[in-house]
Design goal:
The protein is an alpha/beta fold. The protein has helices spanning 51-64, 75-81, 83-96, 131-154, 160-163, 169-178, and strands spanning 12-18, 27-33, 67-73, 104-108, 120-123. The protein has one domain: Ribonuclease H-like superfamily/Ribonuclease H (Nucleotidyltransferase, domain 5), CATH 3.30.420.10. The protein is globular.
Length: 191
């Protein structure tokens, strides 16, 4: 079982993002504060979990977390400030939406733009090391996938219900055949 958090701060928030490498859709981020006795069997990096297990864990996290929030940055924001800065923006929005002020931020990855007034630690592969970051990984991924399924209903050509906007060959073929949608990231190499 993974430790709940990186520090022993009672209000440490884990942060992670989803959708950074996609050709379409927003980038999502989540911030999660877990109680020190939190237990969720099998919780780890969302990429290691089946879609069904992610959904089950999402319910547990949303029910049992001290606080959680999910936020996004749009394709227009990604084009304007770049994907890294848009990921940080989404993370900052998630932290601001928690309803409490975390005492520390445990951030998945090796870079982060400091959030004013809250210390942070970047942890490479943190979503496989600490439950609060893994929980953020699951929420960011499941909420983003849900949004991409909604967009797929509006724009069925691109297969977003399966590829979630990632650069699969079928997704690229649909862009060649139908052109980009308003949700494609125009600063990315689409073809």
């Amino acid at each position: 079982m993974l430790p709940v958090s990186f520090t022993d701060h009672p209000l440490e928030a884990g942060l992670d993002e989803a959708g950074r490498g996609c050709l379409a859709g927003p980038v999502f981020a989540a911030a999660v504060v877990l109680p020190p006795d939190f237990v969720a069997a099998g919780l780890t990096d969302s990429k290691q979990l089946s879609a069904r297990r992610r959904e089950q864990l999402r319910d547990i996290i949303c029910r049992d977390a001290v606080a959680w929030a999910v936020a996004e940055a749009s394709p227009d924001e990604i084009a304007s400030i770049n994907i890294a800065q848009a990921s940080y923006l989404a993370m900052h929005r998630a932290v601001a939406s928690l309803g409490l002020t975390p005492t520390h931020l445990a951030v998945d990855g090796n870079r982060f733009r400091a959030y004013v007034g809250i210390a942070h630690t970047c942890i490479v592969k943190g979503d496989g090391k600490y439950l609060n970051i893994a929980a953020a990984s699951v929420l960011a991924k499941t909420f983003r996938d849900e949004r991409m399924r909604e967009l797929a209903a509006e724009f069925p050509h691109y297969g977003w219900q399966q590829n979630a906007g990632y650069p699969t060959e079928l997704h690229r073929a649909a862009i060649r055949a139908h052109g980009p949608s308003p949700h494609h990231r125009m600063g990315f190499r689409l073809l």
